[in-house]
Amino acid sequence: MRHKEFWIALGVGAAIGGVAALLYAPQTGTATRKKLKRGLEDLGDTLEDAGEYLKDQAERLGKEAQKLIDASKDQFDDAVDAATGVVKSANKAARSASKLI
């Protein structure tokens, strides 16, 4: 029985709320619809602008990431060259030392 009473009370409350909303509406339905339509159009324009901004930022970040990747490759190549030089020097020193022994 409690569930039945709940649903009845909910229905009556919704009906009363709907009537109160219609009686206390600050403007006509036509004006409200126009205002909602304008608001949705403005929201659409805003979302379109946001999409363009995000696209531009994604392109900018992609370019910056590519610059960082290229710089990292250059630094890695320099480090490999330096390490190769150290290994060659160490091999040369080891050969010289082995000739002395």
Characterise the protein shown here.
93% of the residues lie in helices and 0% in strands. It has 101 residues and is an all-alpha fold. The chain has one domain. It is elongated and about 110 Å long. The mean pLDDT is 89.
Termini distance?
A: 105 Å
Mean pLDDT value: 89
Helix-strand pattern, N to C?
HH
Number of helices: 2
Report the major sheet. Answer: none
Domain tally: 1
Number of β-strand runs: 0
What oligomeric state is this? Answer: single chain
- Poorly predicted ranges (pLDDT <50, ≥5 residues)? none
Beta content comes to under 5%
Q: What is the global morphology?
A: elongated
Q: Structural class of the secondary elements?
A: mainly alpha
What's the Cα radius of gyration?
A: 37 Å
The helix content, as a percent range, equals: over 70%
Task: Give the structure's gist in a few sentences.
93% of the residues lie in helices and 0% in strands. With 101 residues, the protein is mainly alpha-helical.
Which key features would you list for this structure?
mainly alpha, 2 helices, 93% helix
Question: What's the topology here?
Answer:
Layout: H1 2-23, H2 29-100
